[in-house]
């Protein structure tokens, strides 16, 4: 199964987002139109940049309020859509995504809306482009994915499919019945997986600020992927995450977290034997903190109040060891070190762990898969 993320998921410039996605091991990206408009070059430049990073541009999105519009808005929307298809060609993608109408003045007539979708799909077929239609959780007439599926079925065109977004599905309390029992594999245009904590609040604000990666929230994303895999799905799994903390964080670190979450999700739904044994962690040898000379007193006072005391100091580095019984805590103040870099980014916090494990080879293999820096300290010990 291939992995992708929408550029809106990460902070930074479009180049920084591409670099982070590639470094994290993603296969593709969805171009969020805001990122494209803020890019100084052309769409062709974006395509070449993606090629340089080894990324496929899997979709351009989002387009809004396309179905059920009155005139002259309908005519303007369809004219704009024609131009967006040309933009998709310049980007080198054959997939465009649009979401359900949020306008109160749009038509609720399913047959009329389906006719609009059909006409858009006819236009797309002439350009060799596939369309994906998604139910926004705050759509005015279409807010649930079974209703979006109803429109896609009524439109009845091979170039039109449904976009399955787990946030929109589960924030509305949708079940998996429609996906399991009705939606066919060939009509799935794209799958976007996002999680979220269980919150009772306005769904638009919920969507814009509280999405997170699979496994970090409370939505049944594992059950969702199990249903997809049972159907034989093997296309892209993509992230589309709106989150304030993500947008203020390192794009690389968030991209790596996102890739790990998809590996976790795949592992949770796999029926195959793993490529290597899952190693057993037998003990924690030490916990290392990144601190500085000036700001370390508060942490040291706290640790001393918990019964820790300093027992050793490094001969040549500004590193000390505090112990209580068999618990070892390393305080690293060394200026030119990974610990200092971690401190500058996060403040006083844990920067490393040393784990005693039963299988060094498998532990290092797992660390490599999930993009964790690990090294062998001594036989049987991994940091």
UniProtKB/TrEMBL annotation:
Lineage: Bacteria, Pseudomonadati, Pseudomonadota, Gammaproteobacteria, Oceanospirillales
Organism from which the protein derives: Nitrincola nitratireducens
Top-rank EC class of the record's enzyme: oxidoreductase
EC number: 1.13.11.27
Keywords: Dioxygenase, Oxidoreductase, Pyruvate
SUPFAM superfamilies recorded: Glyoxalase/Bleomycin resistance protein/Dihydroxybiphenyl dioxygenase (SSF54593), Xylose isomerase-like (SSF51658)
InterPro entries xrefs: Glyas_Bleomycin-R_OHBP_Dase, IolE/XylAMocC-like, Xyl_isomerase-like_sf, Xyl_isomerase-like_TIM-brl
Entry's Gene Ontology molecular function annotations: 4-hydroxyphenylpyruvate dioxygenase activity
The protein, known as: 4-hydroxyphenylpyruvate dioxygenase
Residue span, Xylose isomerase-like TIM barrel domain: 18-256
Family annotation (Pfam families): AP_endonuc_2, Glyoxalase_5
Cleavable signal peptide: none
């Amino acid at each position: 199964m291939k992995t992708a993320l929408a550029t809106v998921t990460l902070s930074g410039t479009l180049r920084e987002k591409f670099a982070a996605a590639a470094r994290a091991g993603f296969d593709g990206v969805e171009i969020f139109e805001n990122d494209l408009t803020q890019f100084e070059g052309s769409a062709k430049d974006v395509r070449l940049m993606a090629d340089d990073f080894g990324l496929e541009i899997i979709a351009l999105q989002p387009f809004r309020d396309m179905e059920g519009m009155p005139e002259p808005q309908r005519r303007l929307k369809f004219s704009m859509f024609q131009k967006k298809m040309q933009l998709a060609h310049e980007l080198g993608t054959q997939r465009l995504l649009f979401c359900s109408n949020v306008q109160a003045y749009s038509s609720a007539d399913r047959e009329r809306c389906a006719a609009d979708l059909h006409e858009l799909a006819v236009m797309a077929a002439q350009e060799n482009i596939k369309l994906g239609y998604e139910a926004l959780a705050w759509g005015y007439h279409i807010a649930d994915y079974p209703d979006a599926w109803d429109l896609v079925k009524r439109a009845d065109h091979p170039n039109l499919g449904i976009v399955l977004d787990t946030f929109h599905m589960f924030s509305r309390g949708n079940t998996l019945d429609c996906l399991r029992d009705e939606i066919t594999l060939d009509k799935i245009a794209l799958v976007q997986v996002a999680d979220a904590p269980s919150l009772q609040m306005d769904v638009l604000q919920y969507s814009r600020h509280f999405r997170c990666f699979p496994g970090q929230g409370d939505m049944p994303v594992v059950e969702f992927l199990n249903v997809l895999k049972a159907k034989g799905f093997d296309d892209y799994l993509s992230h589309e995450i709106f989150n304030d903390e993500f947008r203020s964080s390192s794009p690389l670190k968030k991209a790596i977290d996102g890739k790990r979450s998809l590996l976790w999700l795949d592992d949770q739904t796999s029926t195959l034997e793993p490529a290597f044994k899952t190693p057993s962690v037998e003990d924690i040898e030490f916990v290392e903190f990144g601190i500085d000379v000036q700001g370390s007193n508060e942490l040291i006072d706290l640790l001393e109040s918990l019964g820790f005391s300093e027992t050793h100091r490094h001969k040549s580095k500004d590193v000390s060891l505090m112990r209580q019984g068999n618990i070892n805590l390393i305080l690293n103040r060394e200026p030119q070190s990974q610990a200092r870099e971690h401190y500058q980014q996060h403040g006083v916090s844990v920067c490393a762990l040393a784990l005693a494990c039963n299988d060094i080879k498998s532990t290092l293999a797992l660390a490599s898969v999930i993009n964790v820096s690990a090294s062998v300290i001594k036989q049987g010990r991994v940091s």
